[in-house]
Amino acid sequence: MKTGMNLLLWTTHVTSEHVPLLAKLKQTGFDGVEIPIFEGDASHYKAIGRELKNLGLGCTAVTVVGPEANPIDPDPKIRQAAMDRHKWAIEMTASMGGEALCGPYHSPLAVFSGAGPTPDEKKRAVEVFRQSAEEAKKAGIMLIIEYLNRFECYFLTTAAQARELVQQVNHPNFKTMFDSFHANIEEKCSAQTIRDLVGHFAHVHISESDRGTPGTGQVHWDDVFGTLREVKYDGWLVIEAFGRALPALAAATRVWRDLFPNAEEVYTRGLKFMKEKWAAFG
Questions:
Q1: I need a labelling partner for 225 at 20 to 30 A (CA). Which of 232, 254, 270, 272 fits?
Q2: pLDDT single digits (tens) 105-132
Q3: What is d(CA 84, CA 68) in angstroms, rounded to the nearest whole number?
Q4: Which fold has domain 2-280?
Q5: What whole-number distance in Å separates Cα of residue 22 and Cα of residue 28?
Q6: pTM value?
Q7: In the chain, where does DSSP find H-type helix?
């Protein structure tokens, strides 16, 4: 198991000014960080990768798509733009030495059709992700698709839907993940959800029910950690929390109030909680 911290708590674009923060996270005891990939070029991410290597931090990456690059859109030009976006994000992840590219890049955040996913949309997603997964294979990157709750998207909102997509894409470089925040909303039982994902998931977001400090909300953490241990999960456990520091991201994640006194509490108390729970079920 490796512990990580998602940097979306502070920024959507990591630069050299964040090196002191990276050093603090390393000193706190994290094995790595999850880097947002929303903009930038290969030279930028190579430089970030060098800083991470100097600090002894590993990394994963997270990205999204917008309506102009929607993998399930009926317009083939927009689907091509989605594949181009995926390829770019894969290349940036590889440039900084990342292991995996995570996120809900199956459809645009908070864009709704007024109904659930259609058979045609599912078919388009499979076609796009088979091609994107092949690009990921060339780069040595694992694509980790994230399902969201029904209030943030409509296309992929349950673990069962995510598992089905992984099965249909049927590519070794395409998996899904378990996110405790979304599961707390959408699933009947986190323990059974994790069991049902075995063989199809390769990443975990440790995220509280209010997006605040892990261990301070209503997620059934004993079920989460106990079952991850039960199924012998041995990948990244990444803390994901959101605050109000970034107005656009706060709006996108529906964070209207302070959920914790400061960011330091999130990563120090969160890491301590995560390590204690992991050890308790060892």
A1: 254
A2: 999 999 999 999 999 999 999 999 999 9
A3: 11
A4: TIM Barrel (3.20.20)
A5: 10
A6: 0.96
A7: 19-28, 42-55, 76-95, 119-139, 159-169, 180-186, 190-197, 221-230, 247-252, 263-280
